[in-house]
Amino acid sequence: MQSMLTPLTVEEIVPLVDALPPEERVRLVRLITRSLNSDSAIYAARPPAGDEFSTDDEPLAWDSEGWENVA
Question: With contact defined as beta carbons under 8 Å apart, do 35 and 29 qualify?
């Protein structure tokens, strides 16, 4: 297997996936889902940005909104 000098873009990968026979597409999907079956693998590859989970609101304030009419 040869290593790539630069990573491929989505635009370069999609035609390659389209060219795969059906059996190989199924195999590819299985390999992808097996290796990325949790959020931890995704965040290990690309950690969240500093503002991804930030908010200026009080954390419990937005949690309690909209429950006034629930009996």
Answer: no
Tens-place pLDDT, residues 12-24: 999 999 999 999 9
Number of continuous H segments (helices) and E segments (strands) in the chain: 4, 0
pTM above 0.90, yes or no: no
b/e code 43-53 from CB counts within 10 Å (16+ = b): eeeeeeeeeee
Q: How far is CA 42 from CA 39, 46, 54, 65, in A?
A: 5, 6, 19, 31
H-helix or E-strand containing 28? Answer: helix 22-35
